[in-house]
Design goal:
This protein is an alpha+beta fold. About 30% of the residues lie in helices and about 30% in strands.
């Protein structure tokens, strides 16, 4: 696996390109010379956690023939104050999942992702407490 980053301006804006063809603009905070031209690196890390778990959850539910029609994952992280580097200490994911789904199966799919399958969660749990919640929209009766 390889990602290549190319600096795009005279500040700290980079364009990341993945082997699979993905493109991601990255920029630093204003304190680091960033100009709002992309996601900050720590935001990308939170997005990676949400994406990793989202892929797992959808895959698990599809195997169970649960009809997922949509999903929004909100990831919030708290970082250490006054430290360099400033690691995440707490992260919370909220899964809003759409479709006529079985709540117990959704809860179990999220649990399996977060506790077993998501590689990003395995890395981040070394410094952060990771919690999660979910809500169903259009749940089965």
């Amino acid at each position: 696996m390889r990602v290549t980053l190319e600096r795009r301006n005279d500040a700290v804006h980079f364009l990341a390109r993945t082997e699979a063809g993905g493109v991601l603009p990255i920029d630093g905070s204003p304190a680091a010379g960033g100009q709002g031209l992309g996601a900050r690196p720590m935001e990308v890390l939170l997005a990676s956690l949400g994406g990793c778990s989202g892929v797992d959850v959808v895959g698990i539910l599809k195997k169970q023939r649960e009809p997922v029609t949509g999903m929004t994952i909100t990831v919030e992280g708290e970082r250490e104050q006054g430290k360099e580097p400033s690691l995440f200490t707490r992260i919370h994911l909220h899964f809003a999942i759409r479709g006529p789904l079985d709540d117990a199966k959704v809860a179990r799919a999220i649990e399996l992702s977060m506790a077993k399958y998501c590689s990003v969660a395995r890395i981040l749990e070394k410094s952060a407490t990771i919690t999660w919640s979910h809500a169903l929209e259009g749940a089965a009766a």
